């Protein structure tokens, strides 16, 4: 025993114990796991929330020093990004200017023309300011941030933004900082507006950049309320010099004192910008996430055969996600701060950790024997997969370790996370997922129990009587167990994958949910990142209405103030008209003097009386202190990005603003006026005034709403087109692939193989030839001609109907009863037989065939049939010899008479209806003329056994009493197949004809009585009833060659199918006896035929199983089996097909053609093929093994498949 | 330092060439014969399949692969562009779609060719690829491929040798994790070599250029990317070839009509 094996055993044993533990105490373990997850995730609370919003940190100006690069010990509350010098210092000079007192002779343009004009002198002042102290002379040129070219894509801004020099931004940039250009500009607003981008823009515009305050607050508009113009001169400094800045501040304050200014000037704010997520970064990110979701989808789709697929899939995803969270939490706990972008590496981490182990565990557990206890199943499943799980994990750890030695910091960090994630994932798999799985399995078992109980209570199931009035179609037989696949409506169609996807979408209302979730997320993102400036808008609204920010100092209530700012419509022409006389009296009025006497009476508006043309009051409020806060948070990044400087993951320091108050006299305003200024249209009314301010918001809202409605409509239409309401009802289904020849299906999953020991029914001495069942009883007939009736539930032999005339044979061993069945000896059996109608002479078989053929000549074209008789029925010579060569006789007693095919020991040819079987009549007819003909076909319904003999005789036996009830000798050609259909019997004959018999009983009451109460063994008709059977219709030459199988199905149509040796399958209407359709699918004989409500399954000598659509006759798909398999078929439920193989039975999913499971019947699978297979009601399968019958209870198998 | 490296490289090369000189002719001849036979059989197979129902299937697979290739090329190109330009969504989109419009179609075509070649060669070698044949694994493979690109675009490596070595290890890991077939390895190497040569030619002739060429006009990690791309495309192609219907085209068509 090598070390490896010992290790393997140890691991396996450990996993086994662990599985037992998990399954025994599910709830405590889940609680423990959740607690540990939460504990490990706790450090995550300290991490900042991911996002793109900038982060601020405030320090005092006075003792400010540039932070060093090295992290210091006493960080305190200092954030970790606050290291090293900032990208830039930003010094803003906030200018508030107003023409005061306001004169009614002034035109609206005057509000901002002269205040803006003062920017040039201010700029001059700032540029020329020189601070001179002992250490040297400093000017702005030396301190400011020198910028180079604009980015190539920004040529249109070249005239406006500074290049090759100081980054100094002010409204003067619109006019290249030249007063002359400003003075000669006829329309300032147009100049400002022409640089605005078209359309809606939510991010920082050029106007914002140059004015440094939001557009609303600049006051540069014809409809300004306060008549105060606000703008900033923004200096971007590359290095910090406190003395220069303070001297500049002092100088400006001295020049333009701000009287009532009480701004705090002792704090500077450092703003750290996160990595910007642009379109370019978003697309790869979204792609990786899409791939991740596809991976998760394809992985969890493989979870199968459990109670709740979705629950387990969710558990798997939760396992992986929480292991990731745990890894991040643990890493932060031990001092490693994540520097990687979490959102970016997350998909890769998930992919590295993977969902494979979880799926392997599930597969392994669900494929353990289902009759075990849940605990043991979990333990077994775990220990089965323990080695591979450990191996995988070791491999992955090795790979990651190799990655760790690449010595690239990012990869190292990734590897560290991955290692911790893998370990925690393993922990969670072992504790969390295993426990969830055990709970799921237990639930499934409970569900099975619940489902099986009523079925067993109602056992045995009601038997449909064979004799039933034709008018009453039989109700669908209630089956005690139902094998319901999870969504039968969809799974019973073998749909194209494309449609299945669409149906899946439709079924789960995925589209709507996605829209809903998407909308919620979108709104969340909007609120979070605030790209539209919603927050600033709200803040502005609030500050505007608050008394603090109210500029109107006249003590007017806000609403009155608003009303009074704008002159009424009537007054406007007057004010423009009065422009001309205005210059005549340029003397500025005293500030507090009311000017309303002229205007108010003229307008006749009562408000105006109290609202004189205001003296624009310049006030400084708290919101001016940090006016940059009202800007978009992309303001600074976009300004810097124009010069290809990124602020991502860096910070800038914003110095306290320098307030500058400018009061301009009306005369100055008039002097700076451009001739065209007076031509401006009069300010429109109040109502229209309000509009432009809020228009953007309305536009956004309207467009968003329209887009949303359009999207919903579009998706709705798509939904309608793709998913008609009656989906799933269409009976036509088509397969697209044949998977039978693959050793494993395309999930890489090979179906499980298990073994059960069947209940063996012994009693026949020779190979079993025919097998029939109706759920309760089981009738079998061996080559010796003996018919045995068994109880299908217990396996007891109830009745033995011996072969007629067997007493003359010398086979003594035939009658040994090896089980507890009733013993019939020849004496008992013979009188029973003697009571029946006298049988025809035994030698009639051969001679009678010829006249039959002759009659056929009458009804058919003779040229066609001239060839058939010798080929089909009578050219036996060579065949007989071949049969003798092929089959050695099984018992000496029968050698002379029976060329018995397929002795139990030798490898059987697996062909039930091979030509060798057809010949028994020949030696009979020739050698022993006094023997009975052989039973070729048998059918059991109620307690009637219909046996078709090689002599062409149809016999009806009582299954319980073993007495012959009726016989019909209308045909002479051997009956090769029989089928019961209510009170009709369809018999197929050797010559290819099809006979329809009607069974009449004179006491249909028995049937009713039987239907009424549920006493199981009550016969449908008592022995006193006279049963007659007559031929109602015969179809000659239904097939070109002998019919080999016959099947009926009564679900929707009264159709019987039959397959012949010519490989054709015909569908017949039982009522009319006409052929519905016929298909050719097999090369060679059709050996077996079953059907469900929607399809017909046939198997042939070519080892091919074909699945046909029943209504259209289109072949859906075919399964190629191994050589020698597939002669026997059975349908357990609508979607479960069982086929016999070499010592095993295989279960197939009929919808998909997948092999689900192979069950070996006992150890002694010595090449014995299952040639006959009957599915009973109680989920049992009866199949023959040579002379034995195997009764296999497969509920365990079936529940697995559920 | 580079000279030293070059020297070493040349020496090792020459010694290897010398030692292999004896076998080379025979080997080359046999290999060439093999390749020729493979090529002729492939061609004949293609010709034969043109007349069969398989063609539609082939075209479908090719289309899917082409789409995947175009999409991946766009996304990965974006990743590379992003490294240099930071904050201009509009500009990036403009450069992405204007500069080299022919690159995504080329990548798509290459993906289609490689993805169809893989299952084809598999079937000709007679060793069908059974290792992890499932869509989840394919998705994982694509994710790792994107991750390799991401790493090459985003991570800051000390020098180019480190970058190339890391990427080579990652690509080999990709092959080992998701493919593990000799044919896959060979084809991947072939793809990488051919694609690098083509890129080299393009760059040499000035059709296309790299911002930071570090090895004879191109980036040295390019072969690794091409190798892993080839393996990924082959993975997708194999999966598609496996899933695509074995049934005839008529049935498929009928299903289409009826559904």
UniProtKB/TrEMBL annotation, chain A:
Residues 459-479, 900-909 have a biased composition (Pro residues). It is found in: Cytoplasmic vesicle, COPII-coated vesicle membrane; Endoplasmic reticulum membrane; Golgi apparatus membrane. GO terms for biological process: cholesterol metabolic process; regulation of cholesterol biosynthetic process; SREBP signaling pathway. SUPFAM superfamilies: Multidrug efflux transporter AcrB transmembrane domain, WD40 repeat-like. InterPro entries: Beta-prop_SCAP (IPR057042), HMGCR/SNAP/NPC1-like_SSD (IPR053958), SCAP (IPR030225), SCAP_N (IPR057041), SSD (IPR000731), WD40/YVTN_repeat-like_dom_sf (IPR015943), WD40_repeat_dom_sf (IPR036322), WD40_rpt (IPR001680). Belongs to the WD repeat SCAP family. This is Sterol regulatory element-binding protein cleavage-activating protein. The gene is SCAP.
From TrEMBL, chain B:
One of its GO terms (cellular component) is SREBP-SCAP-Insig complex. It comes from the Eukaryota. It is a multi-pass membrane protein. Its main location: endoplasmic reticulum. One of its GO terms (molecular function) is lipid binding. Signal peptide: none annotated. Mediates feedback control of cholesterol synthesis. Keywords: Cholesterol metabolism, Endoplasmic reticulum, Lipid metabolism, Lipid-binding, Membrane, Steroid metabolism, Sterol metabolism, Transmembrane, Transmembrane helix. This is Insulin-induced gene protein. Belongs to the INSIG family. It is found in: Endoplasmic reticulum membrane. It holds the Pfam family INSIG. It comes from Oncorhynchus kisutch. The chain crosses the membrane at residues 62-81, 101-121, 157-178, 185-204, 216-236. InterPro entries: INSIG_fam. GO terms for biological process: cellular response to insulin stimulus; cholesterol biosynthetic process; SREBP signaling pathway; SREBP-SCAP complex retention in endoplasmic reticulum.
């Amino acid at each position: 025993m090598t070390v490896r094996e010992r290790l393997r055993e140890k691991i396996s044993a450990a996993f086994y114990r662990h599985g037992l533990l998990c399954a025994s105490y599910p709830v405590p373990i889940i609680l423990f796991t959740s607690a540990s997850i939460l504990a490990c995730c706790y450090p995550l609370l300290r991490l900042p929330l991911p996002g793109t919003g900038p982060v601020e940190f405030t320090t005092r100006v006075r003792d400010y020093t540039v932070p060093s690069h090295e992290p210091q010990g006493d960080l305190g509350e200092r954030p970790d990004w606050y290291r090293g010098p900032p990208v830039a210092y930003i010094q803003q000079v906030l200018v508030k200017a107003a023409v005061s007192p306001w004169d009614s002779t002034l035109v609206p343009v005057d509000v901002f023309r002269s205040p803006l004009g003062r920017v040039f002198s201010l700029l001059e002042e700032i540029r020329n300011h020189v601070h001179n102290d002992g250490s040297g002379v400093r000017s702005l040129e030396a301190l400011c941030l020198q910028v180079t070219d604009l980015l190539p894509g920004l040529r249109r801004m070249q005239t406006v933004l500074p290049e090759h020099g100081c980054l100094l931004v002010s409204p003067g940039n619109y006019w290249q900082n030249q007063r002359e250009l400003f003075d000669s500009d006829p329309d300032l607003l147009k100049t400002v507006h022409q640089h605005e981008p078209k359309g809606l823009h939510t991010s920082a515009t050029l106007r914002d950049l140059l004015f440094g305050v939001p557009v609303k607050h600049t006051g540069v508009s014809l409809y300004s309320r306060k008549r105060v113009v606000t703008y900033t001169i923004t200096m971007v400094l590359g290095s910090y010099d406190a003395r220069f800045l303070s001297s500049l501040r002092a100088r400006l304050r001295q020049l333009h004192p701000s009287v009532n200014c009480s701004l705090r000037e002792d704090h500077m704010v450092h703003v750290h910008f996160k990595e910007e997520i642009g379109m370019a970064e978003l697309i790869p990110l979204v792609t990786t996430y899409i791939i991740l979701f596809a991976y998760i989808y394809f992985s969890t789709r493989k979870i199968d055969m459990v109670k709740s697929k979705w629950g387990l899939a969710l558990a798997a995803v939760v396992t992986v996600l929480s292991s990731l969270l745990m890894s991040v939490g643990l890493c932060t706990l031990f001092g490693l701060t994540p520097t990687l972008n979490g959102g970016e590496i997350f998909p890769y981490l998930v992919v590295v950790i993977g969902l494979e182990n979880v799926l392997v565990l599930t597969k392994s557990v669900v494929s353990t024997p289902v009759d075990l206890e849940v605990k043991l199943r979990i333990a077994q499943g775990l220990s089965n997969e323990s080695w591979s799980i450990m191996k995988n994990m070791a491999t992955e750890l090795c790979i990651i370790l190799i990655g760790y030695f690449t010595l690239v910091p990012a990869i190292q960090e990734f590897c560290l996370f991955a290692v911790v994630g893998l370990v925690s994932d393993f922990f969670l798999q072992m504790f969390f997922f295993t426990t969830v799985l055990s709970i799921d399995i237990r639930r499934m078992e409970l569900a099975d129990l619940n489902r099986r109980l009523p079925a067993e209570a109602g056992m045995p199931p009601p038997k449909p009587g064979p004799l039933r009035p034709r008018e009453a179609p039989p109700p669908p037989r209630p089956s005690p167990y139902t094998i319901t696949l999870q969504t039968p409506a969809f799974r019973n169609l073998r749909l194209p994958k494309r449609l299945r996807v669409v149906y899946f979408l439709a079924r789960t209302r995925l589209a709507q949910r996605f829209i809903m979730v998407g909308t919620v997320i979108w709104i969340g993102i909007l609120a979070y990142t605030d790209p539209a400036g919603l927050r600033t808008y709200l803040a502005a609204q609030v500050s505007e209405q608050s008394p603090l920010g109210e500029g109107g100092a006249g003590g007017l209530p806000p609403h009155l103030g608003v009303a009074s700012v704008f002159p009424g419509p009537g007054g406007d022409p007057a004010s423009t008209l009065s422009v001309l006389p205005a210059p005549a009296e340029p003397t500025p009025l005293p500030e507090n003097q009311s000017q309303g006497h002229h205007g108010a009476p003229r307008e006749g508006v009562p408000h105006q009386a109290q609202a004189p043309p205001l003296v624009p009051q310049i006030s400084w409020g708290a919101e001016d202190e940090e006016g940059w806060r009202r800007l978009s948070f992309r303001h600074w990044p976009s300004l810097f990005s124009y010069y290809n400087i990124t602020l991502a993951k860096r910070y800038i320091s914003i110095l306290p603003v320098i307030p500058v108050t400018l009061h301009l006299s009306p005369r100055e305003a008039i002097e700076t006026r451009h001739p065209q200024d007076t031509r401006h249209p009069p300010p429109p009314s109040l109502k229209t005034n309000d509009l432009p301010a809020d228009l953007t918001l309305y536009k956004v809202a309207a467009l968003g709403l329209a887009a949303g409605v359009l999207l919903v409509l579009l998706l709705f239409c798509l939904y309608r087109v793709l998913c008609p309401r009656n989906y799933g009802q269409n009976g036509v289904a088509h397969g697209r692939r044949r998977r039978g020849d693959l050793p494993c299906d395309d999930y890489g999953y090979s179906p499980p193989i298990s073994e059960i020991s069947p209940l063996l029914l012994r009693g026949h001495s020779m190979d079993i030839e025919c097998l029939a069942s109706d759920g309760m009883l089981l009738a079998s007939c061996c080559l010796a001609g003996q018919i045995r009736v068994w109880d299908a539930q217990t396996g007891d032999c109830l009745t033995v109907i011996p072969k007629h005339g067997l007493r003359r044979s010398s086979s003594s061993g035939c009658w040994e009863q090896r089980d507890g069945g009733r013993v019939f000896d020849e004496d008992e059996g013979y009188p029973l037989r003697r009571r029946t109608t006298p049988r025809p002479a035994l030698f009639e078989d051969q001679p009678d065939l010829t006249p039959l053929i002759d009659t056929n000549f009458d009804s058919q074209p003779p040229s066609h049939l001239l060839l058939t008789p010798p080929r089909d029925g009578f050219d036996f010579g060579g065949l007989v010899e071949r049969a003798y060569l092929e089959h050695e006789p099984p018992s000496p007693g029968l050698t002379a008479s029976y060329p018995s095919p397929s002795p139990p020991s030798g490898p059987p040819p697996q062909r039930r209806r091979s030509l060798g079987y057809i010949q028994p009549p020949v030696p009979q007819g020739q050698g022993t003329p006094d023997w009975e003909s052989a039973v070729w076909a048998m059918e059991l319904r109620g307690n009637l056994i219909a046996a078709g003999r090689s002599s062409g005789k149809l016999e009806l036996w009582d299954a319980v009493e073993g007495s012959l009830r009726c016989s019909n000798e209308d045909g002479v050609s051997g009956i090769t197949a029989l089928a019961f259909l209510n009170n009709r019997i369809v018999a197929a004959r050797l010559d290819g004809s099809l006979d329809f018999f009607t069974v009449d009983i004179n006491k249909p009451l028995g049937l009713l009585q039987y239907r009424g109460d549920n006493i199981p063994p009550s016969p449908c008709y008592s022995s006193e009833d006279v049963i007659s059977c007559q031929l109602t219709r015969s179809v000659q030459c239904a097939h070109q060659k002998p019919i080999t199988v016959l099947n009926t199905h009564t679900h929707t149509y009264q159709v019987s199918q039959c397959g012949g040796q010519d490989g054709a399958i015909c569908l017949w209407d039982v009522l009319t006896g006409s052929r519905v359709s016929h298909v050719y699918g097999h090369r060679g004989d059709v050996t077996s035929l079953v059907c469900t409500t929607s399809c017909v399954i046939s198997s042939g000598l070519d080892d091919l199983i074909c699945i046909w659509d029943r209504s259209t006759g289109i072949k859906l798909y075919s399964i190629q089996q191994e050589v020698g398999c597939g002669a026997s078929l059975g349908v357990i439920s609508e979607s479960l097909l069982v086929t016999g193989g070499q010592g095993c039975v295989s279960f197939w999913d009929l919808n998909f053609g997948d092999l689900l499971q192979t069950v070996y019947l006992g150890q002694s699978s010595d090449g014995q093929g299952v040639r006959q297979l009957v599915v009973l009601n109680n989920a049992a399968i009866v199949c023959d093994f040579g002379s034995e019958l195997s009764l296999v209870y497969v509920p365990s198998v079936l529940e697995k498949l559920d | 330092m580079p000279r030293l490296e070059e020297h070493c490289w040349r020496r090792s090369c020459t010694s290897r060439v010398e030692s292999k000189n004896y076998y080379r002719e025979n080997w080359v001849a046999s290999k060439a014969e093999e390749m020729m036979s493979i090529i002729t059989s492939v061609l004949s197979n293609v010709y034969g399949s043109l007349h069969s129902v398989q063609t539609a299937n082939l075209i479908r697979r090719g289309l899917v692969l082409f789409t995947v290739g175009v999409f991946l090329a766009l996304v990965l190109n974006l990743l590379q562009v992003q490294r240099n330009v930071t904050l201009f969504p509009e500009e990036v989109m403009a450069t992405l779609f204007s500069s080299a419009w022919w690159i995504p179609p080329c990548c798509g075509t290459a993906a289609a060719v490689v993805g169809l070649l893989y299952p084809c060669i598999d079937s000709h070698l007679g060793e069908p690829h059974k290792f992890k044949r499932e869509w989840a694994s394919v998705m994982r493979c694509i994710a790792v491929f994107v991750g390799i690109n991401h790493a090459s675009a985003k991570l800051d490596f000390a020098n180019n040798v480190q970058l190339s070595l890391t990427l080579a290890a990652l690509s080999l890991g990709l092959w080992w994790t998701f493919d593990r077939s000799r044919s896959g390895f060979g084809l991947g190497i072939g793809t990488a070599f051919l694609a690098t040569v083509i890129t080299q030619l393009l760059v040499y002739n000035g059709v296309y250029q790299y911002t930071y060429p570090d090895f004879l006009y191109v980036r040295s990690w390019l072969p690794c990317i091409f190798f892993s791309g080839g393996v990924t495309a082959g993975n997708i192609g194999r999966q598609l070839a496996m899933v695509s219907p074995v049934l005839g085209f008529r049935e498929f068509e009928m299903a289409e009509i009826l559904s």
